[in-house]
């Protein structure tokens, strides 16, 4: 049958038939932009809104038109992408709020981070071994404290210092907000370590760090608080013993030196020279199982590799279902990261512990 144009009478009949049918739109115009940008007028003018307060919509209908139109190839079929559309985060950006510390560069997310850390510490007490390292939240926008770390998977972004326990549980964290206005004699690394470790000091724990944090000075400070330190060491740190840093070693050689304050600095050569520090015990050569078979390593290096993996496990678990999306607001990316990645990983680890 050939195509033909409908008459006016036929069109009118079709329209009348459609109007008799019950029709419900899939899109609710009252629901805002799912990308956390648009808020209702009452929310945007509320001067008493708390930073990080989570507002869940009362209406069960949520506008998912943008996600439903996307191709099924863009996301895993086992993943629920609607979660980021159903949660809205209200930021306290009111200059007339007297309780807001405007000098704090991260004041928008500070209460949220503090609240999560309080719950993290209440849910779990770490064992003896803990690790401190940094993780990056990808962000390439304009930001005064954006960091560049070439060794990380995401080279540009917001840096978070994390204290992790066994199985990757994040016990404490701190968002780095740039150089402080009132600097002290302590280095940034020492201040971060002592701040994150404060709830765990004076308990005989063992802290593992990389060469960004470890130093002889930090080892003395931690020993005064009954805490041991183990980690790799940069050769240009203050108070490093010259005979150790200048020593030329052959493959497999190990040399150590212990101070009167029981701080041990050593150097070992495998494929390259590794300078390390420990206050726990004098290192001895031990057999370690690797992909290449059984090899000999100093006990300090073997323990360092084991404890240092705590934060790697945390980042690995968080990467499986990351919710980070493109955006120009750094605080939104940080909030979503610690809410849906760090907190969820901690909840999973706690669940595995209690079942």
Number of strands: 13
CATH topology of the largest domain: Transposase Inhibitor Protein From Tn5, Chain A, domain 1
CATH class membership of the largest domain: Alpha Beta
Unreliable runs, pLDDT <50, ≥5 residues? Answer: 21-83
Q: Sum up the overall morphology in one term.
A: elongated
The Rg value, from CA coordinates, equals 27 Å
Largest β-sheet summary:
9 strands, mixed
The structural domain count equals 2
CATH architecture of the largest domain: Alpha-Beta Complex
Strand content range: 15-25%
Indicate the percent of residues in helices: 25-40%
Give average pLDDT, whole number: 77
Could you state the oligomeric state of the chains shown?
A: single chain
Distance, first to last CA? 68 Å
Counting helices, strands and paired strands, the structural category is: alpha+beta
Number of helices: 10
Helix-strand string: HHEHHEHEEEEHEHEHEEEEEHH
Protein name: PiggyBac transposable element-derived protein domain-containing protein
InterPro entries: PGBD
Pfam families: DDE_Tnp_1_7
Task: Give your account of this protein's structure.
The chain has 355 residues and is an alpha+beta fold. It has two domains: 9-90, no CATH class; 110-354, Transposase Inhibitor Protein From Tn5, Chain A, domain 1. Helices cover 31% and strands 20% of the residues. The chain has ten helices and 13 strands. It has helices at residues 8-20, 41-44, 65-69, 83-86, 110-123, 188-197, 216-224, 242-245, 299-319, 330-354, and strands spanning 53-55, 88-90, 129-138, 147-148, 156-164, 170-175, 206-209, 228-232, 254-258, 264-269, 273-278, 285-290, 293-298. The strands form three sheets. Strands 3, 4, 5, 6, 7, 8, 9, 10 and 11 form a nine-stranded mixed β-sheet that branches. The protein has a two-stranded antiparallel sheet with strand order 1-2. β5 (156-164) and β6 form a beta hairpin. α5 (110-123) runs parallel beside α10 and α9 (299-319) packs across α10. The chain starts with 7 loop residues before the first helix and ends with a helix. The model is unreliable at 21-83 (pLDDT under 50).
